[in-house]
Amino acid sequence: MRVFTFLIITILSLWSAHAQQIGVFTIPPASPTTPSTYTGYAYCTDQYGYFVPYCNPALGSGYYQYTGGHNHDDPSHISDSYSGYLTATGSNTNTVGLQVTYHATRTGEREFIEVCANTCSTTDAIIRNTNLQQLYPGYNFILIGDKPWHPNNHWATQAAITAIVNIAQDYSSTYYTDPNYQVIGVNDEATDYGGVFDICETAAAGCTQGVLPWQPPHSRHDYGLAADFRANGGPNSIVSTAFDDFQQYCRDRGLSSLVQIESVGTSNQHIHCDGN
């Protein structure tokens, strides 16, 4: 289902209107400090497909629900920060077309630009980090933490995947004789499109911060460079006496920017290893 965010130009002409004929384009999600934009042109044609100058098209944008690994939606999704929006150099195509810039959301998802006169043309925008690959379980680790609202939570860069596999190998090689040893549970890396990984999106998530759809606190998982390893004393948890060694394995294997035990004393306690 498509959801419109808003229209920025509302004067219609009596011609067919089109976005620049690029079909579908892909750009990465924006970050809190770095915008992600794509610039193209809107124009009008007559019934024979010939360019019509000095046209005033209507421009709109929006998103497709339940895309990019987010099987949830709510009204707060419609905002400049969490759904894409358009800016234009004016309202008239003049003789060269109307230059339009699309500003991507921080959320990985499929969005669209619609250009209308008496008929409409749609161009889709895929907001995605294209360098992410899917992590698969290994003989010494399993994948955990997928939820109905985020079923694809194990996507990462190739470098991070290699590091995760090697960290699990380092741990199993050293601790497999420990009576409490089990294959470890690897939790979130990133969603399949990357971008905002909103773990507090529903009440069912049980976050102490409350319900925070389309927002952090999981922001270090936006880029597929971080991984969480279960350390809560339950099934598939890291042996408690190995916590210091395990954190060193992360540093040795390149997930060293932020290595720490998080959610201490809760059922979600884990070791976070970050390559950002």
Biggest β-sheet, characterized?
5 strands, mixed
Calculate Rg over CA atoms: 23 Å
Low-confidence regions: 6-15
CATH fold call of the largest domain? Muramoyl-pentapeptide Carboxypeptidase, domain 2
Cα separation of the termini: 34 Å
How would you describe the overall organization of this protein?
Helix content is about 10%, strand content about 30%. Helix 1 runs antiparallel to helix 2. With about 280 residues, it is mostly beta strands. It has two domains: about 1-125, Immunoglobulin-like (Sandwich); about 135-275, Muramoyl-pentapeptide Carboxypeptidase, domain 2, CATH 3.30.1380. The model is unreliable at about 5-15 (pLDDT under 50). It has two helices and 17 strands. The strands form five sheets. Strands 1-6-9-10-3 form a five-stranded mixed beta sheet, with no helix packed on it. Strands 2, 4, 5, 7 and 8 form a five-stranded antiparallel beta sheet that branches. It has a three-stranded antiparallel beta sheet with strand order 15-17-16, with helices on one face. It is elongated.
What's this entry about, in short?
This protein has 276 residues and is mainly beta.
Topology (SSEs and partners):
Elements: E1 2-9, E2 16-19, E3 24-27, E4 37-45, E5 51-52, E6 58-64, E7 85-88, E8 98-103, E9 109-116, E10 120-127, E11 133-134, E12 141-143, E13 155-156, H1 158-175, E14 184-186, E15 226-230, H2 243-252, E16 258-262, E17 270-274
Parallel strand pairs: 3-10, 12-14
Antiparallel strand pairs: 1-6, 2-4, 4-5, 4-8, 6-9, 7-8, 9-10, 11-13, 15-17, 16-17
Helix pairs in contact: 1-2
